[in-house]
Amino acid sequence: MGDSKAQNLQIPRRSATLRSMVEDNLRKAIASGTFKPGQRMIERDLCERIGVGRTSIREALRQLEAEGLVVSYPHKGPVVASFSAEEVRQLYVIRAELEGFCGREFARHGSREDIAKLIRAVDAFDRAAQGDDQEALIETKTHFYDVLAQGAGNIYVTQFLTSLHNRITLLRVSSMRQPGRLPESVREIRLISEAIAAGEPERAEAACKQHIENAARVAIAQALTGQSNDAEE
Amino acid sequence: MGDSKAQNLQIPRRSATLRSMVEDNLRKAIASGTFKPGQRMIERDLCERIGVGRTSIREALRQLEAEGLVVSYPHKGPVVASFSAEEVRQLYVIRAELEGFCGREFARHGSREDIAKLIRAVDAFDRAAQGDDQEALIETKTHFYDVLAQGAGNIYVTQFLTSLHNRITLLRVSSMRQPGRLPESVREIRLISEAIAAGEPERAEAACKQHIENAARVAIAQALTGQSNDAEE
DNA sequence: GTTGACAGATTGTCTGCGAATCTGACAAAG
DNA sequence: CTTTGTCAGATTCGCAGACAATCTGTCAAC
Fold first, then answer.
1. What positions does the domain HTH gntR-type occupy (chains A, B) (predicted)?
2. Residues contacting residue B219 through CB under 8 Å, at least 6 positions apart
3. Strand runs (DSSP E) across A1-129, as ranges?
4. Nearest nucleotide to A46 by CA–C1' distance?
5. pLDDT of residue A135
6. How far does CA B168 lie from the centroid of its chain?
7. Burial of A229 (0-12, 13-18, 19+ CB in 10 A)
8. CATH of B85-226 among 1.10.10.10, 1.20.1250.20, 1.20.120.530, 3.90.550.10
9. Which residues of chain A have pLDDT under 70?
10. Distance from CA of A130 to the nearest CA of B (A)
11. Alpha-carbon gap, residue A73 to B159, rounded angstroms
């Protein structure tokens, strides 16, 4: 019967709670660098700045803690997570593995629709790479990774990758800031989409891994020289 | 200077907070089946049964929620997570991928010490498989997976696998309950340890994947027939 | 049988409070 | 001058109580 489009009526049951909004706010604040790695996050400050009670703040912090975005020590409170060079390396290693998996599965089982979406995502990123709108660059690239993860059809891999991406944006070592890296990056992800569209799992996996490994090299180099982590003061 | 063994003096900074103890309790309660999938977890009940205030309960629940052990809907409260057959399938797919990664990396970079630990873990599991102490069986097998994950030397993979294992124990579809599966299981993990000890990454990875895929077959079959999930009533 | 209203249960959130704990400063002792 | 001891301030930890918002089932009315 007329239930073909029924699910579109769903009201966003989510976001109804204050806590989840606080959570999103804090996540964005951390990602955007408002709070820097190593910096303390003091309950009462957050209460005032966000305008909610301690309950909501504390519960939101527990979630971020579980996600690895903040670390908290008993009786000292939470601080924004920071990473050693070795941890950054490991982060990229596992990310390469997981995105490689996505590429492979996508090429194997991806729907025609998902593939079209992926290609559009690459095109959008390409266009953004021509201009110099940093905002658009990040957004289109994030979208590409979202589509890539989605296409693999595995909710757990999506969750894990989201978690990894959050920690990477926190690092603020965008490999795209490296001169000459941007066009190369475009080429790489186009290779990925082409391999997936062609339905070649091994090539897609290899392309994904290659892409992340290249990004990792730049990121680790930056992490070593910059040393903007810690943020002791 | 005499700092060679200094770190052993560290006091367990952890576990100082009530919240973390509540968290562990609940995790265990869920894993042991005290709370079944689909069952509601009512704050005040938990307060009484555990003997702590609502604050601690709620914050612990937020962590478990982030781990995927419980799901909560606004104004309805948290329920123990339950999984569709498709989700179980996906769970094992990604688990195979991650443990395969562990096997490969372990074989590549594992220390002599870690390898010895791994072999001891296999022996312990083998011995447990001879007896019929269900408790020991689970414990030794869990230990084996811990050592395997540890040996890969990647903290993120360890985290992710822990998360997956937690959800699987919640499922209570121990593939070991299948008649004949146990000795086969022992053989499989011995193959893993042998490949790692021999330093053969590809073979180790394949053995890991094979092992999980076999377990998955049994688990999914059980999940389909049993249907003890949902627990609507 | 459908609709509507109502009551009970439960969660979401805020607030005040006291205890426990960490931290840095400052004085006392060597 | 360095080490040690003490103390006060800041902050988290956890509890209890309160109230609004929301969900759920029931039961009467149509």
1. 16-83
2. B88, B92, B168, B171, B173, B175
3. 70-73, 77-80
4. D11
5. 86
6. 7
7. buried
8. 1.20.120.530
9. 1-15, 226-233
10. 35
11. 18
Here the tokens at position B131 are 């007896």
Q: Are the beta carbons of B103 and B192 closer than 8 angstroms? A: yes
pLDDT tens digits, one per residue of B86-132 = 999 999 999 999 999 999 999 999 999 999 999 999 999 999 999 88
> Exposed e or buried b for every residue in A176-201, given b needs 16+ CB within 10 A?
bebeebbeebbebbbbbbebbbeebb
List all nucleotides in chain C with at least one atom under 7 A from a protein Cβ.
10-16, 20-23
Q: Distance of alpha carbon B24 from its chain centroid, rounded?
A: 14
Listed residue (B170, B192, B176) closest to B82, CA to CA:
B170
Token digits for A38?
A: 């190593």
Hey, where are the domains in chain B? 18-80, 85-226
CATH architecture of B18-80: Orthogonal Bundle (1.10)
Query: Average pLDDT, stretch B173-182?
Result: 77
Nearest CB neighbour to A74, from listed B13, B75, B156: B13
Contacts of B139 (CB under 8 A, 6+ apart): B128
At B191-224, the pLDDT tens digits run 999 999 999 999 999 999 999 999 999 888 887 7
Cβ distance of A58 and B63 shorter than 8 Å: no
Count of positions (residues) in chain A: 233
